[in-house]
């Protein structure tokens, strides 16, 4: 083994994704055929904050209220004056079940379940939002709602699908954050380009931040909000002093430069030297970026960090603001634990609690970005894996919840390059189907990459055939 290969493998206590990210930035592990790191056209946004709520929030009790459900509560779809959504051809066109059809009863519960909360119209735009979002409703004129999203997996593998664009029966694809990382250079070389806060919390949902054939260098880097140890494998070894580690890095640099004298034309070695310098600097930059105690009391209150129910989401969203402020390209935030929005039973109780836990933090996040001028540079995506059924779930003699619903749901965006106080698309009167062609999840991906100045159709890897559905189509109507 040559010296440079040995030094590449030893890791210096900074192994894993973060080092891979830096090596990629220096051309060490960038995949064959990878872009140059330059946008394809003038970007509208410098950074993306992708906020994901795991479990599937109800579009009906959040951002797409349907008063018709109250008028026809307890009746079947056939008893309403509207077309029966189960008989629509869209039901089969947009749906792929893993269980056998004869045992898969999801999405077809016949009795209509009324809205579990009231709603009102807000702002100059008059956009309807339910009463569980009082703080976010005050920001509605800065938001852009897409009410005609759809996906195909009716189980929680849809959490991966919203990020990769592929059903679990298909070949896995890189996540949206990985594509952004792959396509663009870094704004701040002291921090990872793709940061993950709060997740994923399970191995079977790790696809949501993975890079697969793009190479591990482009995967998300999970950070903890602990300034003393924010990055796994990123700190000094136990018992090692700052001086000792500094000396260790100096020794590596000296050995590499000695080799460089005999290999002056070796670009890999030159990049390796730079990567170790970056590794050392990142150990200071990352803890500083997650040091929320540096924020004022008023800012922490704005995010709800001083209140128990909102503390978790508030901390993660405030950390996201600090990340984009420092030039991180893509920040993926999980403001609540895995599956907590899943409301098969006790939807009213569950959604009341969960909306309260996120409402103030996300509203504070939007307001904070706006007051700092960051909404001109940062685009926010607020999403979940699917919606919930207009019908009452009846499995296990249930009477108080809604099942998973991939046929029509709502996400919202805000910030750079996006219309404000705007609603795009709709579901039918009962909140069942996304009307028109609707938007499969990769349309959201294409739109996000477009905001960053990337043409999704040009992000190709030799030897890898991508389907049209992988690329998606930009939702041009929501662009400012």
Topology:
Elements: H1 3-10, H2 17-25, E1 47-53, H3 68-71, H4 90-93, E2 119-122, E3 127-130, H5 134-137, E4 143-150, H6 158-164, H7 176-183, E5 194-197, E6 221-223, H8 242-262, H9 267-289, H10 297-302, H11 308-325, E7 330-333, H12 347-371, E8 378-384, E9 387-388, E10 404-405, E11 409-415, E12 422-424, E13 439-440, H13 441-451, H14 468-471
Parallel strand pairs: 1-7, 1-8, 4-12, 4-13, 5-6, 5-7
Antiparallel strand pairs: 2-3, 4-11, 8-11, 9-10
Helix pairs in contact: 2-9, 8-9, 11-12
Question: What would your notes on this structure say?
Answer:
The chain is α/β, with parallel strands linked by helices. The chain folds into two domains: 1-30 and 237-286; 43-225 and 290-478, 3-Layer(aba) Sandwich (Alkaline Phosphatase, subunit A). The protein is built from 14 helices and 13 strands. The protein has helices at residues 3-10, 17-25, 68-71, 90-93, 134-137, 158-164, 176-183, 242-262, 267-289, 297-302, 308-325, 347-371, 441-451, 468-471, and strands at residues 47-53, 119-122, 127-130, 143-150, 194-197, 221-223, 330-333, 378-384, 387-388, 404-405, 409-415, 422-424, 439-440. The strands form three sheets. Strands 1, 4, 5, 6, 7, 8, 11, 12 and 13 form a nine-stranded mixed beta sheet that branches. The protein has a two-stranded antiparallel sheet with strand order 2-3. A hairpin with a 4-residue loop joins strand 2 and strand 3 (127-130). The longest helix is centred in the last third of the chain and has 25 residues, at 347-371. It is globular, with a radius of gyration of 24 Å. 50% of the residues are buried. Mean pLDDT is 87; it is low at 3-20 and 26-34.
């Amino acid at each position: 083994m040559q010296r440079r290969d040995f030094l590449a493998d030893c890791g210096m206590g900074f192994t894993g994704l973060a080092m891979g990210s830096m090596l990629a930035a220096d051309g060490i592990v960038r995949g064959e055929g990878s872009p140059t790191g330059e946008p394809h056209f003038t970007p509208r946004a410098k950074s993306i904050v992708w906020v994901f709520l795991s479990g599937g929030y109800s579009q009906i009790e959040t951002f797409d209220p349907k008063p018709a459900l109250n008028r026809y509560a307890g009746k079947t779809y056939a008893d309403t004056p509207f077309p029966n959504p189960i008989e629509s051809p869209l039901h089969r066109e947009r749906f792929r079940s893993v269980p056998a059809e004869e045992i898969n009863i999801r999405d077809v519960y016949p009795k209509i379940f009324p809205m579990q909360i009231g709603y009102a119209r807000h702002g100059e735009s008059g956009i309807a939002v339910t009463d569980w979002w009082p703080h976010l409703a005050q920001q509605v004129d800065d938001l852009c709602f897409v009410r005609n999203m759809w996906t195909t997996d009716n189980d929680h593998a849809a959490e991966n699908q919203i990020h990769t664009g592929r059903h679990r029966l298909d070949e896995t694809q890189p996540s949206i954050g990985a594509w952004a990382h792959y396509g663009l250079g870094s704004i701040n070389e002291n921090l990872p380009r793709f940061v993950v806060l709060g997740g994923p919390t399970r191995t079977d949902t790790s696809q949501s931040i993975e890079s697969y054939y793009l190479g591990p260098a482009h995967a998300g880097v999970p950070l903890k909000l602990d300034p003393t140890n924010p990055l796994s494998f990123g700190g000094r070894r136990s018992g090692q002093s700052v001086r000792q580690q500094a000396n260790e890095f100096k020794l590596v640099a000296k050995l590499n430069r000695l080799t460089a004298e005999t290999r002056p034309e070796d670009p890999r070695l030159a990049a390796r030297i730079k990567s170790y310098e970056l590794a050392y600097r990142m150990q200071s930059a990352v803890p500083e970026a997650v040091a929320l105690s540096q924020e004022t009391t008023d800012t922490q209150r704005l995010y709800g960090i001083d209140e128990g129910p909102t503390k978790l989401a508030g901390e993660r969203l405030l950390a996201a603001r600090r990340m984009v402020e420092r030039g991180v390209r893509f920040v993926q935030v999980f403001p609540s634990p895995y599956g907590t929005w899943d409301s098969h039973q006790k939807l009213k109780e569950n959604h009341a609690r969960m909306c309260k836990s996120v409402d103030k933090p996300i509203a504070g996040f939007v307001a904070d970005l706006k007051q700092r001028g960051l909404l001109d540079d940062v685009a926010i995506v607020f999403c979940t894996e699917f919606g919930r059924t207009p019908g009452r779930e009846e499995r296990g003699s249930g009477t108080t919840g809604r099942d998973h619903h991939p046929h029509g749901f709502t996400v919202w965006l805000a910030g750079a390059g996006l219309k404000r106080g705007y609603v795009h698309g709709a579901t039918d009167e009962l909140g069942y189907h996304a009307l028109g062609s609707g938007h499969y999840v990769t349309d959201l991906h294409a739109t996000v990459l477009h905001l960053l100045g990337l043409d999704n159709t040009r992000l190709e890897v030799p030897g890898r055939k991508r389907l049209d559905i992988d690329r998606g189509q930009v939702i041009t109507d929501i662009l400012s």
